[in-house]
Amino acid sequence: MKLRDLVYGLYARRVEGRLDHAQVPKHIGVILDGNRRWARADGRTLEQGHQAGADKIHDLLGWCAETDVEVVTLWLLSTDNLNRPEEQLTPLLGIIEDTVRNLAADGRWRVHHVGTMDLLPARTQTVLKEAEQATFDVGGILVNVAVGYGGRQEIADAVRSLLLDHADRGTAMEDLAETVDIDMISEHLYTRGQPDPDLVIRTSGEQRLSGFMLWQSAHSEYYFCEVFWPAFRKVDFLRALRDYAARHRRYGN
């Protein structure tokens, strides 16, 4: 073991030992950013970068289980990513499909897709649906896999679903306009029935949400980490939890 790894291990245990589990966020959203830049910096192919990022998810969920996190939302593919050249998108979708299969096969996680299913290839849709069905009764961490996801698209889909729902009920448009509220829209989001994220982590040093969970993250705390996602370590995760626990959350201001 390298001296640096030993030092990081000791430091991680120290941070973890001081972590108050009562202050741990129950729902963490993660923007897994930096796979391609990590690959370029390390002399790897883009596909190897995405695969390294996918492999890191297993570690993250293990750390979440150790610290009593209940829901994790992983942004794996945005709606904008679907416009990438086919030679980039096809292998990326293959890695995502394998990742979702592995999550379902693990037996510890309940997998739920968030995103617009119709925008995805038929094979990807099948993998996502089968993973949800196979893990429906699993009692572990709820893992939202955001594939073909965009925050604006989610809100548009929620409003569309709300309108169609009330049209089926025969609700007059004027009556709906007078009664629609935040809770009604929330009931039609991809994450309906789930708690909003307490903490949103973004790796790679970028300090923006890029449309991630626009509605749900209104009162979330944000943690921006400099490291690229494939290089994200347990100590980085624990630092994010420590930073979150030290904040005094103020809702609305």
Automatic annotation (TrEMBL):
Question: Can you list the GO cellular component terms from the UniProt entry?
Answer: plasma membrane
User: By its UniProt entry, which HAMAP family does this protein fall under?
Assistant: ISPT (MF_01139)
Coiled coil location: none
The cross-references to PANTHER family, in alphabetical order and at most eight, read: DEHYDRODOLICHYL DIPHOSPHATE SYNTHASE COMPLEX SUBUNIT DHDDS, DEHYDRODOLICHYL DIPHOSPHATE SYNTHASE FAMILY MEMBER
Q: What is its EC number?
A: 2.5.1.-
Q: Where is the catalytic site?
A: D33, N81 (proton acceptor)
Q: Where is the signal peptide?
A: none
* Record family assignment: Belongs to the UPP synthase family. Z-FPP synthase subfamily.
Which GO biological process entries does UniProt record here?
A: polyprenol biosynthetic process
The name on file for this protein is Isoprenyl transferase
Biological role? Catalyzes the condensation of isopentenyl diphosphate (IPP) with allylic pyrophosphates generating different type of terpenoids.
Kind of enzyme, top EC level? transferase
User: Per the record's keyword annotation, is Transferase included, yes or no?
Assistant: yes
Assembly, in brief, is: Homodimer.
User: Lineage from the top down?
Assistant: Bacteria, Bacillati, Actinomycetota, Actinomycetes, Kitasatosporales
A GO molecular-function term, please? Answer: ditrans,polycis-polyprenyl diphosphate synthase [(2E,6E)-farnesyl diphosphate specific] activity
Question: Which residues does the annotation say bind Mg(2+)?
Answer: D33, E221
